[in-house]
Amino acid sequence: MSFFVKENSIVRSIWGKSDTIIFIFAGSAAEFALNKAVDWLYYTGKLPADPIGRLFSTVTYARQIVYAENEAALKAIDQITAIHAAVESNRQQQIPDWAYRDVLFMLIHYSIASYELLERKLSLAEKEEVFDVFHRVGARMNLKGLPTTFSEWEIMRKDHLEHNLHHGVFTIDLFNQYKKHLGNFRYQLLIQGQILVVPPIVNQLLNLGKFSWMRLVLPLYLISRKLKLDRVMKSMILPNKYAAQIKDLDTIPVRSI
Length: 257
Description:
This protein starts with 9 loop residues before the first helix and ends in a 9-residue tail after the last helix. It has 15 helices and no strands. The chain has one domain. It has helices at residues 10-14, 18-34, 39-43, 46-49, 51-67, 70-91, 97-118, 124-140, 150-163, 169-182, 184-197, 200-206, 214-226, 230-237, 243-248. The radius of gyration is 17 Å and the shape is globular.
């Protein structure tokens, strides 16, 4: 059986643990709010109505593709393309290619940053593996202007961060929605986690702060993971209604999409 991502790929290691994915989720939540095309996510009303669920479904869907058999993964990517095409048709506008690229670029960046925060530094070859997986997702979606190598991605990523981010009314509203749906305690955890993985320009635009107290407790969390006590700590991070999804993230998907 041929898989979209090789079974021994570092990408499977990254997307095979819920704690890594939670940091991917946290970083993406920050950058989503700043993206100049975030109005597209407001168009259907689904994002402000349930921002945590919406972002959770995005990272969960990406994870399923990582573990899917090749043909099933391609069908899933085609389905994503079709869903966005329907939204474009309803709005009678096209989502700009750079906005699609930004999402792929976020998944690449936060995959690497989250794994390095919790596990170890990745080699250049491993970073190139991460890039390759999401580049193939973008190519299947027929996105234009994709970088062809990891080094090109680094250059484009920097350019996108400098030109495609904006702190506006949607940014403020989305963070208000995060706080509303998470509650003050979990919202503060989200902010502290974001400080650890977002690029400096994202931190600056959101004024998150330079120091995260989470860095001090992270070693204790890593110890709790070895003692199998980490699930209790994870339950503190996201609301109870997501408990089942968090648990499932530690289980390798056994069904094709």
